[in-house]
Automatic annotation (TrEMBL):
The active site is at 264. The keyword Oxidoreductase applies. Belongs to the aldehyde dehydrogenase family. PROSITE patterns: ALDEHYDE_DEHYDR_GLU. This is Aldehyde dehydrogenase.
Length: 490
């Protein structure tokens, strides 16, 4: 039996076209321009959407505000809202292959990785909040410090403007939709124009689950659409995932109107490899996966690998060999482990950073050669002899490039890991898990994985210190982020 040609799989999945904007439970006509979404692997069209106009944003916000006041939503209990999320998960799971294919095609995520990293993570978030909805306390009664009784109620913030990135659209949408809906909020989602198709298809799942019209509305657009949503007087809170530069602008706009915002921004995460590490295949594979997953395009990518000087050559050599074994190619091919980056501009920026690092004294220790065409590919790259002050060690690349930084003792490793403008995530690798935990507790980051490249748990808070953002997603903390406490003294 011969394996199928990836092109055959593409032919079996025709272009998906979504005309108009999704407002009040239906695709409404729009005067906006049509946007053709192209595959970063083949540069061929994979679907189309309509770019929202300012009038479309107004209509979407109005629908969300009306839904907030509707009996269909306002009177629904948190338990029922959780059950609705369970139905969304059921409907998504039934179509998981279709969603995985579509997201893989539009943003280049390797199809095998997309099954978990794109679709499976969204399912995990929805299932988690289905359970949390039944457990969360929205009201408690306590004794007043002055005598008598106080009731503290948790009320929904209101209409949420949620702005999504392109690298993991379904997962980040679930991280915002699930806790916001449990809290009783309504939403206007703005997907990235680089990867809007999976979010557009999500509307069919929401409808199948029985979501009332207007609770979730979708407007696709570029920066101008995001700016219109952020500045809209009818939006009570912005939840943004994206670059630190954009997050700073959004935070300033929200602050001017004293409106709430949560910002999950960039990262330049470190993986500290302690001297006692057992350098088996699982460890090396995990370290490399922490950089190369989703073609290096994940916010928690642990691209700074801190290596003890006593074992530097050994560990760097093992990392280079593992990176060279990765299969680079068409994301539709099940054998592919690394696909293209999102655009020509991203590829050129990554290549320029690598060249500048080499000119500054770094060494490429992985193979150098041709990449597949015609898409925007970058070979998995490991750079040795990198100084933590080099731009490549300080700026988020969003590509399959690891830098190996030498340290002499644990104190220096911790100092290097913390010496960053960012503080999103990290990992500590050691044969002694208790020692690793002690080192992890010294890091100024939002989450740390021990002997793993996955510093995220669906039921726990996720977010960053410093310029990695404000607020948290995940766990009951994310529900609280969409609520306003109200105190009634009686």
């Amino acid at each position: 039996m011969t394996s199928a040609d990836p092109s055959d799989e593409r032919e079996a999945n025709p272009m998906r076209d979504f005309p108009g904007v999704y407002v009040n439970g239906r695709w409404a006509p729009s005067q906006g321009d049509r946007l053709v979404v192209t595959s970063p692997a083949t540069l061929e069209p994979v679907g189309s959407v309509t770019l929202a106009t300012p009038a479309d944003v107004d209509a979407a916000v109005a629908a969300a505000r009306a839904a907030m006041a509707s009996d269909a939503w306002a009177a629904m209990s948190s338990v029922d809202r959780g059950a609705l999320l369970g139905r969304v998960a059921d409907a998504l799971e039934k179509r998981s292959v279709e969603f995985g294919d579509l997201v893989s095609a539009e943003m280049g995520s390797p199809r095998k990785w997309a099954s978990f990293g794109q679709v499976g993570t969204a399912l995990g978030v929805l299932r988690t909040y289905e359970k949390l909805a039944a457990e969360y306390e929205f009201e408690d009664t306590r004794r007043s410090a002055m005598g008598g009784e106080v009731v503290v109620r948790q009320l929904p913030v209101g209409v949420i403007g949620a702005i999504l990135p392109w690298n993991a659209p379904l997962f980040t949408a679930a991280l915002k939709i699930a806790p916001a809906l449990v809290a009783g909020c309504t939403m206007v989602l703005k997907p990235s124009p680089e990867a809007p198709l999976g979010i557009a298809l999500l509307t069919e799942v929401l409808e199948e689950a029985g979501l009332p019209p207007g609770v979730v509305n979708i407007v696709v657009g570029e920066a101008a659409t995001g700016e219109a949503l952020v500045a809209h007087a009818g939006v009570d809170k912005i939840s943004f995932t994206g670059s630190t530069a954009a997050g700073k602008r959004i935070g300033a706009v929200c602050a001017a109107d004293v409106r709430r915002c949560s910002l999950e921004l960039g990262g330049k995460s470190a993986a500290i490899v302690l001297e006692d590490i057992e350098l088996d295949r699982a460890t090396v594979t995990g370290l490399v996966a922490g950089v190369m997953a989703n073609n290096g395009q994940v916010c928690v990518a642990q691209t700074r690998i801190l290596v003890p000087g006593s074992r530097y050559d050994e560990i760097v050599g093992a990392l280079a060999e593992a990176a060279d074994r990765l299969v680079v190619g068409d994301p539709c091919d099940p054998a592919t482990q690394v696909g293209p980056v999102i655009s020509a501009g991203a590829r050129d920026r990554i290549d320029a950073h690598v060249r500048a690092a080499v000119e500054g004294g770094a060494r490429i220790v992985t193979q150098v050669g041709d990449t597949p065409g015609p898409g925007w590919y970058v070979r998995p790259t490991v750079l040795a002899d990198v100084d933590n002050d080099m731009p490549i060690a300080r700026q988020e690349l969003f590509g399959p490039v690891a830098v190996a930084i030498r340290y002499h003792d644990v104190d220096e490793a911790v100092a290097l890991a913390n010496d960053s403008d960012y503080g999103l995530a990290a990992a500590v690798w050691s044969a002694d898990r208790d020692h690793a935990f002690d080192v992890a507790s010294r890091l100024r980051v939002g989450s740390v994985a021990v002997n793993s490249s996955a510093p995220l748990d669906f039921g726990s808070p996720f977010g960053g210190f410093k310029q990695s953002g404000t607020g948290r997603e995940g766990g009951p903390e994310a529900i609280a982020a969409f609520l306003e406490p109200q105190t009634i003294i009686r």
